[in-house]
Amino acid sequence: MVDSCVCVCVLFFFTVSVDCGANVAANDPVISILTDVEITAAAKCQGGDKNFVSDDSVHYTLPAAFTARDSRCLLYRRESSEHYVVDVEIHYGEQGSLILTKQKILTAICNFGDHGKDDSAQHSIREGPIAPIEIQSIVGETIPKSELTLSVQTVDDQDAVVPMALDRRYSVYGTYTGSLSNVGLKPVSCDAVSDSGDRYSVLRAGCGDGLIFDRSEGFTTLGTTFRSPYFVAFHLSSSTNLAFDCNVTLCSPSCDGVRFCFYILHADILNGSGFSFFFFFSCSEL
Q1: Residue 203 backbone dihedrals phi, psi, to 5 degrees
Q2: What are the Vitelline envelope sperm lysin receptor C-terminal domain coordinates in residue numbering (predicted)?
Q3: Which residues are CB-contacts of 129 (< 8 A; sequence separation ≥ 6)?
Q4: Has residue 284 got a pLDDT over 60?
Q5: Percent of the chain clearing pLDDT 90 (strictly above)
Q6: Using one digit for the tens of pLDDT, what is the confidence trace for 67-85?
């Protein structure tokens, strides 16, 4: 018996299925995920979470059990029934992306009783934005890193302590502690960095990436400090730690204010047969 739940989108999909085996006595169920999108997945088993493993980033499996067996994921049995269930939590992102910002919790089911059904409802996933790569360069004179500090802070403006909760909101906060006076601190770009050194740009040309920060959002400068908009905690791929690396500009005189970003849509008629569209990305400071 195989139960499955299918999640479908125009660009990608994943399925969660369970090979329950011939009967309960066989005690050999296997939970599988098939996907063409970047994911990390874990089952909420009795005794603790168990992570799915994959050799090709397409097929993920997790051996399970109806009764305790080795270190397998032990499923929950519904009272007075032959109905076994476990929740599967999947974090997923765009095709080829390092950043995983979406979450789906599905229930895997094995039913050996006379009542129940062998399939689950279909779920739709809305297409999300794609994360482009920014080409960065540093021009002009530089200042020592020792004169700059960068931290992740909670909503009450305190430095965050580990472990950070994935469902909580934080902000990136930077300060200049050098001796120059009458200057301001303006962030130009910021990267999120994983344990392995993989980088994802959350701020490009002073404006949000469209995933972590809205494209219309920028950072706020106040004197020799800056703060990002609030964001929900995330992780890059399977990395359990996250750091931020920012390029900043010292402006003189100070450049207090919020950086706003906007798109201008321009359309040209092409020989009366259609339109071509050009997006111009611009930022302004208030």
Answers
A1: -135, 125
A2: 31-257
A3: 94, 210, 211
A4: no
A5: 20
A6: 999 999 999 998 878 889 9
Closest to 125 (Cα-Cα) out of 104, 140, 147: 104
Q: Is the peptide bond prior to 63 cis by the omega test (within 30 degrees of 0)?
A: no
Task: Indicate the CATH number of 145-285 among 3.30.470.30, 2.60.120.10, 2.60.40.4100, 3.40.50.970.
Answer: 2.60.40.4100
pLDDT band at 66 (very low <50, low <70, confident <90, very high): very high
Q: Which of 59, 57, 53 is nearest to 33 (CA)?
A: 59
pLDDT digits (tens, 9 = 90+) for 219-239: 888 888 999 999 888 877 667
Tokens standing for residue 172: 């990136």
Contacts 24+ apart (CB under 8 A), 19-28: 20/84, 20/110, 20/111, 20/112, 23/112, 24/66, 24/82, 24/84, 24/112, 27/65, 27/66, 27/67, 27/69, 28/63, 28/65
Q: For residue 156, which amino acid is it? A: D
Show me where the domains of the chain are located. Answer: 2-124, 145-285
Indicate the SS3 state at residue 71. Answer: coil
**Residue 241 to residue 246: CA distance in whole angstroms:** 17
Q: Measure Cα distances from 186 to 59, 205, 220, 231 in Å.
A: 44, 11, 8, 19
Would the pLDDT of 163 be above 90? no
CA distance readout (Å), 271 to 268, 274, 275, 276, 277: 9, 7, 9, 11, 14
Query: Higher model confidence: residue 270 or residue 226?
Result: 226
In CATH terms, are 2-124 and 145-285 the same topology? yes
- Cα 203 from Cα 208, distance rounded (Å): 5
pTM over 0.70: no
Assign domain 2-124 to a CATH class. Answer: mainly beta
**How far apart are alpha carbons 222 and 216 in whole angstroms?**
19
8 A C-beta contact, residue 261 and residue 283: yes
